[in-house]
């Protein structure tokens, strides 16, 4: 769903010594909120660095689903938000639902509820692909990975340089 931008009010409050007084309202030519069409209809097929901005359990035809809203934090579609419905599937480790909970460390213990608030703010790498069913196009999560630790990569590079230098002597 595209973001809805609301115009900001230009009313300013001042505090003279007697109390709070509002400055006169400016003449506004258009006070209706605007709707801006996003650059993409959905995330194109690819791999994205993203952050989960919301996670809730929703009812779809009498069955619970996990709805997550992500915002892309890297690449050329930075800031694009997308929502996904994930069917709860604890049995198959290849399911997007299972991968998401494993990577984020939010897999509940047996007979315990999923705590969706623990998903919010988590950063991950998502691979998405479009699928067409019944004439409709859907964007699906096909893989979930942990974000690589840049510091660990730098430490490994430093150790490699030392090892290379010691073998050359």
TrEMBL record:
**Residue segments, region Disordered:** 1-24, 144-169
UniProt protein name: DUF669 domain-containing protein
Q: Which organism is it from?
A: Cohnella fermenti
């Amino acid at each position: 769903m595209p973001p809805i931008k609301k115009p900001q009010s230009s009313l300013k409050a001042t505090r003279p010594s007697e109390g709070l007084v509002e400055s006169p309202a400016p003449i506004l030519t258009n006070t209706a909120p605007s709707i801006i069409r996003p650059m993409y209809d959905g995330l194109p097929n690819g791999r994205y660095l993203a952050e989960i901005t919301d996670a809730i359990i929703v009812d779809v035809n009498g069955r619970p689903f996990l709805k997550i809203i992500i915002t892309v934090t890297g690449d050329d579609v930075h800031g694009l938000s997308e929502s996904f419905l994930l069917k709860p599937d604890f049995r198959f480790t290849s399911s997007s639902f299972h991968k998401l909970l494993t990577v984020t460390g939010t897999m509940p213990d047996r007979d315990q509820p999923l705590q969706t608030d623990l998903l919010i703010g988590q950063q991950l790498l998502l691979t998405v692909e479009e699928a067409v069913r019944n004439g409709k196009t859907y964007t699906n999560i096909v893989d979930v990975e942990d974000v690589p630790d840049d510091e660990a990569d730098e430490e490994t590079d430093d150790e490699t340089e030392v090892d290379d230098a010691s073998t050359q002597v």
